[in-house]
Amino acid sequence: MPVTMDTLVSLSKRRGFVFQSSEIYGGTGSVWDYGPLGVELKQNIKRLWWRDFVQSRADMVGLDASILMHPMVWTASGHVDKFTDPMVDCHECRHRFRADHVDARPWTHYCPATKGNKFVIPAGEACGHCGARRTLCPECGKGELTAPRQFNLMFKTFMGPVEDEAALTYLRPETAQAMFVNFDNVLQSMRLKLPFGIAQAGRSFRNEITPGNFIFRTREFEQMEIEDFVNPHDTVEGRPADEWWHDRWIADCMAWFRRYGLREENLRLREHEKAELAHYAKRTVDIDYLFPIGWSELMGIANRSDYDLKQHSKFSGKSLTYFDEERKEHIVPFVVEPAAGVDRALLAFLADAYQEEEVRGEKRVVLRFHPELAPVKVAVLPLLKKREEIVRTAHGIRAALSRHFRVVYDDTAAIGRLYRRQDEVGTPYCVTVDVQTVGDRDKGESGDGRVTIRDRDSMQQVRVPEGELLPVFRGLLEDGDWGAVVARFGGVTADAGRSREGDP
Ligand code: GAP
C-alpha cells in the first residue's frame, strides 16, 4: 500500500523530521521547520548532490551567492514581468486559488436534488445525485469566483532604511540568476574552458498562491541548481552540444535519484509541451515522482539557450561572452539547467523509504533509507544498562565512531523497542554491547571484545571485534554490502527482538 501524506506528516512530527513552523501560534501551512533528524537528512541530500555533481567533477565549480540581489537582475531575467500565476478569489469566503489548480481540488456542493445536502465531491467529478459540475468556489461551495488575475510570486522587500520604490528589491525566487550574473567572475577567476558548470544550493522564496501538500510546495524552500554552459557551435556525437548535454543531464539526474533509493516504478520523465515552456526555454524535461499526491514534478532540466546571459548583458551593459579560441570569436554560451528542490527530494526519499511490515506478529515501520542518506548511521545500544562496564563500553564506541558518522546512544528502553525506534527513523545499523563483550568480573570471566552489529533491512546480526567497527561501517555506509560482512565474520543470527530484561 502506498504511504499517505498524513502518515508521513505524522511520522515526521513524532520522530523529529519536520515540524510545522511557528506551531505554538497555530502554525502556517506554507513553511516548515526541519527537526533534529530532518536537518541531518536534508544535509545528507545536499552533501551527496554536491559530492556527486560538484566535488567529483573536473568541469564543475560551486557558488554561494546572496539571497538579496540588485533589483535589475529580476527585470532582466523576466521575473518582474513574467513570474506570475493566474489567481482567482471567492466573492463569498475570500479564499484564494491558483486558477489552473481549481479543478484539481475536491469541491463542496449543496445538492438541489437532496434538499440542499452538503457533499464534498472528488476533483473533476460531477455530483452523483444531480449531475452538476463545479462552477462555484470549491472551498465554501457558495461564492462565485473572480476572473483570473496575474499574481507575481516574488516576495518584495526594501533594501535600507527607506521604504520607497527606489529601495524595492526581492527575495530570490530561484538560485539560478546568481550563476548568470557571476558568469564572467567565475570564468575569469577559475580560467575555465567550455563546457563547464556552476552549481549552487540555497534558499529560494516564492509567494505561492496555494502552497500545500506538506513540504511539496512551500513559500520558503531550498534548491540545488546547476547552470552548465556549453558552446552552441560545438557538436558531440554529431549533435549540437547543448542538446547532447541536455540528454546527458536528464540521464545523470535520473540515475542519481535511483542510486539513492528511489524506485524505478516511481520515477518518470515528462517532456514539456511547446505551450507550457517557460519564456527562456528551448526544451524542458521534468523528472516526476509518484508522490502520495500523485505524479508531480521532482525536478526540472531545462535548455535555457543563451537567453539569460544575453538579457543580463543587455541590462547591465557588460559583456558576458566566452572567447572561442578555435573559431577566434566571442560567443554567448548556451546553458543546460538541472534544477532540483531539496525539500521535494527529501519528501520523495521519505515516501520511497517508508515501509510497514509484519515481523513475528507485530507491525514494523521501517524507513529503508540508503545508508548515505540515513540521518543516523549507527545506534549504540547497551543490552543491560545496569552493568557499568557495558554502558561505559557503549559510550566509548559512540564517541569513537561519532568522529566519522552521526551515531547515537540509547538506553531508554529494552532492546526490542530500541531496534524498532531505530527502524522507524531509518538507522541502517545498530551495535549492541552485552556481557559476552565485556565479560563477568564476578564470575572471573573475561569478555571476547566483540559486539553485535544488527542490519536494519535483514534484521540479521553478526558479532564483530570492537576494533573492526570503524572499517566495517566505512565499507557498509559506502556500498551497503551486508553480505560481505556476513561472509567475513560469519555466525549470523536473527535479531531476537526482545531483551533479556524483557520488553516493557
Ligand atoms: N531555475 C529554474 C527553476 O527554479 P523550477 O522548476 O521553478 O525551476 C526547480 O524549480 C525545482 O525547485 C522544482 O522542480 C522543485 O523541486 C523546487 N521548487 C520549486 N518551487 C517550489 C516550492 N514552492 N516549494 C518547494 N519546492 C519548489
Structural class given helices, strands, pairing?
alpha+beta
Terminal residue distance: 30 Å
Number of helices: 14
Please state how the strands of the largest beta sheet are arranged side by side. 3-11-12-20-17-16-15
Bound molecules: glycyl-adenosine-5'-phosphate
Largest sheet data: 7 strands, mixed
**Total beta strand runs:** 30
**What is the helix fraction of residues, given as a range?**
25-40%
Q: Tell me the overall shape.
A: globular
Could you give the topology of this structure?
Elements: H1 5-14, E1 18-20, E2 32-34, H2 36-55, E3 60-62, H3 71-76, H4 79-82, E4 84-89, E5 96-98, E6 107-111, E7 117-121, E8 149-152, E9 156-158, E10 168-170, H5 176-181, H6 183-190, E11 196-205, E12 220-230, E13 235-236, E14 239-240, H7 241-259, E15 267-271, E16 283-291, E17 294-305, H8 307-316, E18 322-324, E19 329-331, E20 334-341, H9 342-353, E21 354-359, E22 362-367, E23 378-382, H10 388-402, E24 407-409, H11 415-424, E25 429-433, H12 435-438, E26 439-440, E27 445-446, E28 450-455, E29 460-465, H13 469-479, H14 482-489, E30 493-494
Parallel strand pairs: 3-11, 23-24, 23-25
Antiparallel strand pairs: 1-2, 4-5, 4-8, 6-7, 9-10, 11-12, 12-20, 13-14, 15-16, 16-17, 17-20, 18-19, 21-22, 25-28, 26-27, 28-29, 29-30
This protein binds glycyl-adenosine-5'-phosphate.
Glycyl-adenosine-5'-phosphate (GAP) binds at residues 174, 176, 206, 208, 217-218, 221, 223, 225, 297-300, 337, 339-341, 343-344.
